[in-house]
From TrEMBL:
Coiled coil: none annotated. Keywords: Flavoprotein, FMN, Oxidoreductase. Residues 14-371 form the FMN hydroxy acid dehydrogenase domain. It comes from the Bacteria. Pfam families: FMN_dh (PF01070). This is Alpha-hydroxy-acid oxidizing protein. CDD domains: alpha_hydroxyacid_oxid_FMN. Belongs to the FMN-dependent alpha-hydroxy acid dehydrogenase family.
Length: 371
């Protein structure tokens, strides 16, 4: 380092922190977890071509810095569905969370509350949405649901969520059945029902087996937008459609009443062969044309990825495996460290791009590489 270089904040260099980089957190998570649980976390569907495509897509975009821009110290602050965030990041609804740490999404929510990040709390989580809310009453929380199988469970969950302090619903539309996850098949691995039924242990709920029988009822057709709009009709909460990859589906989601679109291929865990989420983002952003807020997930691994997604039209990103790795590496502290490293890297990237904040990012910050 020359004397002219400006050092990153002291907390990120030589600070004695256990994890100096996000990669170290991922490595610690892998070390802490049994091999079959790591495979469940890290793996994708089929031959994992979509899982890899998600990462390759980020590498195809190069940054175009604007030097000597006079830009102010950059701010990463933003808002999403009315929630004020310290940076444009939410944590994904990842179920079976107690496999990674006993506190699961409760620890994630506490880390998020401390770091100004919003949680999307999974229906198939290890703790109930009431428990997660109680763990971090100040965190911005969104409740995720699966519109599949029979409607009774979906409607009961909506009614239950309405008065629990959740600000929105996240409806996962790319999961009419589970993906073909070969690592789990090879490992003969399925999560213990106890880690995915936290929402169905409360008094008065149907038995977990009964709920899952209704959800995965193969005699039920795949839901339509009309059916979803009907089931949501009584809900006072705005909702996001999670798992959109085309402009046409974004249009249909907005017509059904969605306030937000999550461009996502479920982290490559559902339809193998589907395109990278980042590659589909410009098409979806064009179709949405400002009528809904846009989130992107699938493949975010560092702050530079956040900047690229925002430049291509996302308002925020959602992190799945990265947050799960923070949890597996060191519980609440690990998730907080993920957020702090992401925010520090994003701040560095914004400064080097000559942009004064996340809202200043647009396609002029990027150039697509030849390949
Ligand atoms: C272990 C695990 C469990 C997940 N469970 C759910 C779920 O129950 N519902 C859902 O909509 N998405 C689920 N997802 C997908 C995430 O919400 C998100 O779309 C994905 O992880 C984003 O990709 P990334 O992991 O590359 O960040 C899960 C992901 C992982 C890794």
């Amino acid at each position: 380092m020359t004397s002219g270089d400006i050092a990153p904040p002291a907390t990120f260099y030589g600070s004695g922190e256990r994890f100096a980089t996000l990669d170290e957190i991922v490595a610690a998570a892998r070390e802490n977890l049994p091999a079959e649980v790591w495979d469940f976390l890290a793996g994708g569907a089929g031959e994992e071509s979509t899982l890899h495509a998600n990462r390759d897509a980020f590498a195809r975009w190069a940054f175009l810095p604007r030097v000597m821009s006079g830009a102010d110290v950059p701010s990463t602050r933003t808002s999403f569905l009315g929630a004020e965030l310290s940076m444009p990041v939410l944590t994904a609804p990842f179920g079976a969370d107690a496999l990674f740490h006993p506190e699961g999404q409760r620890a994630v929510a506490r880390a998020n509350e401390a770091e100004g990040v919003a949680s999307i709390v999974p229906e198939a989580g290890s703790h109930s949405l009431e428990d997660v809310r109680a763990a971090a009453p100040g965190a911005a929380v969104i409740a995720q649901l699966h519109p599949m199988g029979q409607e009774a469970n979906f409607r009961a969950m909506i009614a239950r969520i309405a008065d629990r302090g959740y600000r929105a619903l996240c409806v996962t539309v790319d999961c009419p059945t589970g993906g073909w996850r070969e690592r789990n098949l090879r490992n003969r691995f399925a999560p213990d029902p106890a880690v995915i039924t936290g929402n169905y242990r409360a008094a008065g709920s149907p038995e977990p087996e009964e709920v899952f029988g209704q959800l995965f009822d193969r005699t039920e057709p795949v839901w339509s937008w009309d059916r979803l709009a009907g089931a949501l009709a009584g809900s006072p909460l705005p909702w996001l459609a999670k798992g959109i990859l085309t402009g046409a589906d974004a249009e249909a989601a907005i017509a059904a009443g969605a306030s937000g679109i999550v461009v996502s291929n479920h982290g490559g865990r559902q339809l193998d062969g589907a395109p990278a989420a980042l590659d589909q983002l410009p098409e979806v952003a064009r179709a949405v044309a400002g009528r809904a807020q846009i989130a992107l997930d699938s493949g975010i691994r560092r702050g530079a990825d956040v900047a690229k997604a925002l430049a291509l039209g996302a308002d925020v990103v959602i992190i799945g495996r990265l947050a799960a790795c923070g949890l597996a590496a060191a519980g609440e502290t690990g998730v907080r460290r993920v957020h702090r490293l992401l925010r520090a890297e994003l701040t560095t990237v914004l400064t080097l791009l000559g942009r004064g904040g996340v809202r200043d990012l647009d396609e002029s910050a990027l150039r697509r590489s030849a390949s």
